[in-house]
Specification:
alpha+beta; single chain
Amino acid sequence: MSKVTPENAAVWFEIPVSDMKRAKSFYEAVLETALKDENGGPNPMAMFPAGGNGAVAGHLYPGKSAASGSGNTIHLATPAPLEDAMERVTKNGGKVVSPVVTIPAGRFAYCLDPDGNSIGLFTR
């Protein structure tokens, strides 16, 4: 059996939220993008935009988040400058929980959305 290395280690993400309207508004404001409502699955969803069929993407759905800051962290691409996105987090009911971290691939900051979901905001 030969092992195949996948193109992307992650292929999809789901973020559980207690209030779809509030969460959709938060993510649209912070990421400066539009999420698309979908009702064809088992739950209503708000889809994050992604570029093409092979792109990694995800959605918001009605669900119960892990305790504030204790679940997985999803890193989301945001328009530069990163500091502006961090301001949008706090203006829209979230919380910035780290300073900016610089790595070879870019810069990011850890934040919590209004439900306490851990997210990283990332810019190249």
